[in-house]
Amino acid sequence: MADSQSSLLEQVRSGNRQLQLLAAEGMLPLPPEELIPLQVELAQVDDPEVSERARESLRKVDARHAQPFLERRAEESVLSWFAEETSHPALIETILRRRDVPRRILARLARRVPPDLQELLLLRQDAIIEEPAILEALEENPQVSSYSLRRIAEYREHLLRRERSAAPAPELPEEMDDEELAEAIAVVSELPAVGEIDDKTGLTEGQIRQLPVPARLKLTRGASRTLRTLLLRDTNAQVATSVIINNSLSDQEVEQTAANRSVVEEVLLLISKRREWVGKYNIMKSLIQNPRTPLPTALRLVPKLAVKDLRDIGRDRNVPEAVRSTALRLYRIKQK
Length: 336
Known about the structure:
Helices cover 64% and strands 0% of the residues.
């Protein structure tokens, strides 16, 4: 059987016009994984009759046969053709969901994807980060929805923010030794003391914030719970993340930090990358509800929520719209 199929393919590709016409119409006894790529080839030949028959047949292809092939085995040339030509929603969705689809194909598809599938395209944050032109192409889509335009604006603000790595990364300041730290503490202790005093340093929160970064980095090592809470809110990302790296935090501390809207994004991102923390439901939920959590991180966690929380977050105006709409969509699906 395999030999006869191979012989048919050879004859079609060698120029047997009668077989080409039959192949173009999908009439040869070949499996989809061989017939569909052959039809895509024939759709681009110089013979107008053969190419038109192939295009027409591909546009009417049975999605039940084409979908499994597109989902797993179709190569770039086939995916590209269907991205440009098919109008079948199930086939378009299959291409959008395929993790390894070339990003330029998604960009071409973005120019014509119907409104009901635009949200699925916008959920492909991995592809959008790699190929921001996907958003530009979607904006050019005559059918682009107002919802998609809002999401595009949100992605540009949060997802595609200029990577900090584009500029030379600042060198990590060296920590002070004990003597230098004592001198720094002595200097800021002369400043007005307002608020609760930390036992270890004898300084108030305001005074601690006046310490130079190397001194605050030194304090993160073996910090008391009170000092950890203070330094986790430090506006310097190196100081704040150093608290997590250099201390053993309780689950309660992590949950409170994950919910804190005054911590820097780097702290929330670091929490989300610790399996032992993000695996705890309340910590995960706090990250999702915190509007300062990086959008890709929050969206990655939303599907893990319970149905009730999907509903509640879908109604929460304090979370980004992308998170809210994703939660509502999943709530409707899981509710059924």
